[in-house]
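Q: Hi! New to this. If I give you a protein sequence and the SMILES for S-adenosylmethionine, can you show me the bound structure?
A: Yes, paste them in.
Q: Okay, here:
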Amino acid sequence: MCTPAGVRLGGYMLWGTGATVGPVGEAFDIVRSGYDRIGVRYGEWSSASPTRLNFVRRRLRELTPGSLVVELGCGAGEPATRLLAAEHRVLAVDASLAQLRLAREAAPTAALVQADMARLNLRAGSADAVASFYALGHLPSHEHAPLLHAIAHWLRPGGVLLTSAPLRAGDDRDKSWLGVPMYFGGIGETATRQAIESAGLEVEEWQVVPEDEGDGKTVRFLWVLARKPQFG
Ligand SMILES: C[S@@+](CC[C@H](N)C(=O)[O-])C[C@H]1O[C@@H](n2cnc3c(N)ncnc32)[C@H](O)[C@@H]1O
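A: Thanks. Here is the predicted structure of the protein with S-adenosylmethionine bound:
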């Protein structure tokens, strides 16, 4: 299922998540149109990442089969959405319809929603896990901490956040990233940790992993597993 960005889902119930979305911002539009134009190229460029594959495979074991997993910025769905949806109920959100169409092929059983992850509202305690890989780095910096707080609110006690977060702090527009204008934002490692912990999540894995981006460039992401305490 795809719904237009910025449109309230009208109380539509996605396995009891009560998902609704609010109006979108300028950064979202840059990212949405960029990934629409990028199409299959992002997946072709990034699909070789062993870090994401290893993290998802290893951390999938945290989840009981049939868990409700909310994936933010699912992109083309390969490999994360596909692996998650093979065992779990997945609500996958992305800005770009072109990416969601690809995700539908990769993970036909996932519920797909076009929305700004920073404006998504889910029912408190409705998700067993929230996953987001290589996507938070497209959010404006002022949206990072509120989103991490919202994620903690959506998770049930014992639920987990699985993510790769950007290390850089600040906001940036690139005129030509993979050939299209793109928006990047982040709050850096210390503020990300503070936001996760002040949201009430307990960090169980925290690793900076360098990856080869091609053309001799190395990119570093923060790989995180944080859990909402069972009793808080
Ligand atoms: C770098 S790609 C990563 C895709 C996928 N998670 C993966 O690992 O291959 C980032 C994705 O996040 C989506 N995205 C970025 N900002 C978003 C936002 N505010 N709301 C929803 N999706 C967003 C983009 O459309 C894009 O598909």
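A: The chain is about 30% helix and 35% strand. Let me know if you'd like me to explain how to read the tokens.
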